[in-house]
Structure formats: C-alpha cells, structure tokens
UniProtKB/TrEMBL annotation, chain A:
<dbReference type="Pfam" id="PF00355">
    <property type="entry name" value="Rieske"/>
</dbReference>
<dbReference type="InterPro" id="IPR036922">
    <property type="entry name" value="Rieske_2Fe-2S_sf"/>
</dbReference>
<keyword id="KW-0411">Iron-sulfur</keyword>
<protein>
    <submittedName>
        <fullName>Rieske 2Fe-2S domain-containing protein</fullName>
    </submittedName>
</protein>
<dbReference type="GO" id="GO:0046872">
    <property type="term" value="F:metal ion binding"/>
</dbReference>
<dbReference type="GO" id="GO:0051537">
    <property type="term" value="F:2 iron, 2 sulfur cluster binding"/>
</dbReference>
<dbReference type="InterPro" id="IPR014349">
    <property type="entry name" value="Rieske_Fe-S_prot"/>
</dbReference>
<dbReference type="InterPro" id="IPR017941">
    <property type="entry name" value="Rieske_2Fe-2S"/>
</dbReference>
<keyword id="KW-0408">Iron</keyword>
<dbReference type="InterPro" id="IPR006311">
    <property type="entry name" value="TAT_signal"/>
</dbReference>
<keyword id="KW-0001">2Fe-2S</keyword>
<keyword id="KW-1015">Disulfide bond</keyword>
<keyword id="KW-0479">Metal-binding</keyword>
<feature type="domain" description="Rieske">
    <location>
        <begin position="68"/>
        <end position="165"/>
    </location>
</feature>
<dbReference type="InterPro" id="IPR019546">
    <property type="entry name" value="TAT_signal_bac_arc"/>
</dbReference>
<dbReference type="GO" id="GO:0004497">
    <property type="term" value="F:monooxygenase activity"/>
</dbReference>
<dbReference type="GO" id="GO:0016705">
    <property type="term" value="F:oxidoreductase activity, acting on paired donors, with incorporation or reduction of molecular oxygen"/>
</dbReference>
Length: 173, 68
C-alpha cells in the first residue's frame, strides 16, 4: 500500500488488482476437468443431430409421393416429350419417350441456374437455352456448357397404358 | 510411462475423438447416411461418461500423492 500510494502507480504490469490465488494458472487437474466438461458439451450438442437422423430414418426419410399419372402412352409418340409437374405443382419436369417402352423423366430445371430445359428431338439432346447447356438424354448427365451436375431423375413406371411418376431419385454426389 | 501421464494422454484422446466423431456425424447427416450419423452420435454420447469416469479416477488416484 505504502508503495503504491502515489499516482500514477509505478507498477506497469496492470495486474496489481488481481488478488485471487492462482487466478491465472491452469493446472493439470483444471485441464482434465475442462476436457471432461467439453466431452459433456459435445455429447449434449450431438443429441439434436441424432434425433434428426433418427427421425429421417424412421419414416419421413424416404419421401414417397403418391404415384402420379403423367400421360397416356397413346398420347405421346416415340421421340416426343411432355411436360408435367412432380412432386410439387411447381416442380416442372420433362418426360421423354425414347422407345417403344422406354421412358425417361427429369426435373427440368437446369442445374446451372435453373432455367427450364427442353428436349430437342432433332439433336437427341436436352438443351438449356440460357447458356447452351446440354444434357445426355439417357442419364441426365451434363455434356456441354456450364452445368456440372446431372438433372435430377424421376423414376417412372408404365402401367395399364399410362406412365406414372414414382419418385425423385436421390442425388449421389 | 507413468500411469498419471497415461491418463492425461487418454483425456486428450477423448477430446480428439469428440472432434472427429462430431465432424463425421455432421457430414454423414448431410450425405444422408442417417445410420452412420446415428452411430457417430452414439459414440459421442458414450465417450462422455468415459471421460467423466477417467476424471474421477484421476482425482482419486492423485489424492494424497503430490499433485502436478
Ligand atoms: S441455366 Fe442452363 S446453362 Fe445456364
């Protein structure tokens, strides 16, 4: 006290007012304690992820939409396409008849910037008019232009002279 | 190696595993491998009691002995 009665203090360590014992010391035990606590925090914070994953596994996961009729087979000649919406009414999609019994369907938002893509019969390719992106009609893989990911494929089923959309194939990157 | 240091290293391993499992869990979740995500979540949960036990055990062992 005596020494510090003048102003300004002579001490220059700025810690003269810290009095608690060992305030700045992290000893071995303190460290162990911190790690144990951290493990607890990790455990608690992984709970919601587990819950979400479980929920996804239990039912909500496989999104099966009700099968939706796209068109009658008689109404679509080989090599032609029809537009439809699946699974929602704003998710426009494209069905292409490639052969007698061969149908493919894709969601027709370009994987570049979501322009609608078109089936060009003469060239045998799916074409995006925006930046001249092209997609392979059999697989949906991009073959030219800016798109890098395939078009999401819709699995279709032929039944009683009509084509039905079953579900959207999961994207596997 | 002294058992004391062994416990210390084990504790560090716990933290290391925590980080790895969390990272894996989140990634598996977004890759839609929900089963794997659940497995990593369980691992993360199991590791906590283990760490707690390790800590308690350590405190007990060091009681009386010189602390360092
Ligand atoms: S939006 Fe289709 S190529 Fe750019």
């Amino acid at each position: 006290m005596e020494k510090n009665n003048r102003f300004p203090f002579e001490e220059d360590n700025y810690t003269h007012n810290i009095n608690r014992n060992n305030e700045r010391k992290l000893d071995r035990r303190g460290f162990m304690k911190t790690l144990a606590g951290a493990a607890g925090v990790f455990a608690v914070s992984s709970l919601p992820w587990g819950a979400l994953a479980a929920k996804e596994l239990m039912g909500l996961g496989e999104k099966e939409y009700p099968h939706q009729k796209i068109t009658d087979i008689a109404a679509i000649p080989i090599g032609d396409s029809v537009e439809f919406a699946f699974p929602g009414e704003h998710d426009s999609a494209l069905l292409i008849r490639l052969g007698e019994n061969k149908f493919v369907a894709y969601q027709n938002a370009c994987t570049h910037l979501r322009c609608p893509v078109y089936w060009v019969k003469a060239e045998g390719e799916i074409i995006c008019p925006c930046h001249h992106g092209k997609f392979d009609v059999k697989t949906g893989e991009p073959t030219a232009g800016p798109p890098r990911r395939p078009l999401p494929e819709i699995i279709v089923k032929v039944e009683k002279g009509a084509v039905y959309a079953v579900k959207v194939k999961r994207y596997e990157g | 190696m002294k058992a004391k240091n062994m416990r210390f290293i084990l504790m560090c391993m716990v933290l290391f595993l925590n980080i790895i499992f969390t990272q894996k869990m989140v990634h598996q979740y977004f890759y839609e491998n929900y089963k794997n995500a659940l497995i990593y979540c369980a691992l993360n949960l199991v590791i906590f009691p283990a760490a707690l036990f390790l800590y308690k055990y350590d405190v007990k062992k060091l009681k009386g002995a010189d602390r360092g």
